[in-house]
Design brief:
- The chain has 529 residues and is an alpha+beta fold.
- It has 16 helices and 30 strands.
- The strands form 8 sheets. Strands 21, 24, 25, 26, 27, 28, 29 and 30 form an 8-stranded mixed sheet that branches.
- The longest helix has 15 residues.
- It is flat and about 90 Å long.
- The chain starts with a strand and ends with a helix.
Length: 529
Amino acid sequence: MIFAKIKSENSEGYFLAHSLLLPAGRVRKGALITADIMQRISDNGIAGVLVAQLEDGDVHEDTAAHVLATHPEGVGLTISITKTGRVNLLASHDGLLSFDASSIFAINMIDEGIILATLSENSWVAQGRMVATIKIIPYAVTQENVNRVIDVLADQTVSVRAPTVHTAELIQTRLSTVKESTLDKTCRVTRNRLTPRQVILSHESRCNHHSKELQGQLEESLARNPDWILIVGASAISDRADIIPHAIAAVGGVIDRFGIPVDPGNLLLLAHVGNTQIIGLPGCARSQRHNGLDLILDRLACNVPISLSWLCGLSVGGLLTEIADRPSPRVDTTDDGIVGAIILAAGSSRRAGPVNKLLVSIDGTSMVRLIAQNICASNASHVIAVTGHEHEQVEIALADTDVKTCYNPAHNSGMASSVVTGVSRLSDCDAVVVCLGDMPHITTAIINQLIEAFKHHPEKSIFVPVASQQRGNPVLFTRLFFDTLLTLTGDTGAKNIIQQYPQEVHEVTIDDSSILLDYDTPEDLATLT
């Protein structure tokens, strides 16, 4: 590609090297200069422009990106529109992302101007999620290098494998130390874990934690010919000779693997009897939190073989965190769940002038104390205020309330650091409501509406209030997003997460415009006093 500055009157057919801001609007860099654009440039008194021209053997960025996006073989993908040299591959359904990582490495070695980036191999993705992006960095790349990438892609399969319907049975063993309510909850959690993967829990049975009794339950289950049998022991499996593997062997089963390099979930057992897959579940499977069992179920649900090399490969990245796209509901829906609330009260109120707006009096009560009182009166179990700027005064304003305060020493870095501070203090909760300290008219009823929506819509993980067709604050996040919230930086808050995961959002209609009102400037504050 050749760059040169030429007269505007001769620029038609070239590509604009740098953006131009004209009265009629911006002409973006890389745009093909048409006769109309050329005329607009000349009419605005611009005598010359820097342009780019394709050389022989060059392929324009959009053409190259689109051609490359159409070449990987595979299923379960849709291709986005191509713009500014970028095209995205999107999941056309929920499922398991599958590709050969070595090919991705090879492609990125060919030309620094041709980039292919993907999510992690074997990620579970939701429908509509971007799984890969192709970006042509310069305005053009050579046809030779495009062809070299196509040659690599010819042997590459990028797919989102959809789950197929399977049947499963659950066997739980008892000891005197295990409550029946625990077994009931384990059954519900297991059903919730299986359902999004198109697995039908067709039968559940219980017996004493004894090899002979478990053997009998296994024989009855095998007679019904399910695809899978899941066993939850009253005591975790500790050895290949333990009660659960012993009972599996007694019915003719083969132990394929005991222990996987994943935490939580390492005490997992894989076995089979004929075509029936048997899984001895780790103790953490009683919880809905993401663990090694989820990785196993993802592959089995999509009929992807579980090899020894794949299992051992789990060790890199095997220290798990919550994953937002995992296909499991986030709480046991029959339990209330513990909901905490975070009041972001660390800001410096720069736009408000010399005052700290959180300390402004509203009918004799400071702004931050007013919202704290309303939240404390709600169904939130724990309330924490993250302080920063003038934290001593803010903490005094919150004295004698049920709010616990936590100082954020990094408050000047932006709102995200306060979100991180708050979430880290409420990590044992099932959900948190993130509240802004400068929204004093948020009522107890609004907080309770968000919490009720959380309890009644277990299929969603982000709850956003809406008034007059506008989204507002506060926002409730389930623990599925805690680890994502803990990665936030800067001053953007959690807005980007809401935009990135639209399939997880449930809008809660609120008949109160206070969810749209905050108070930033002296003029805003004057309306309160």
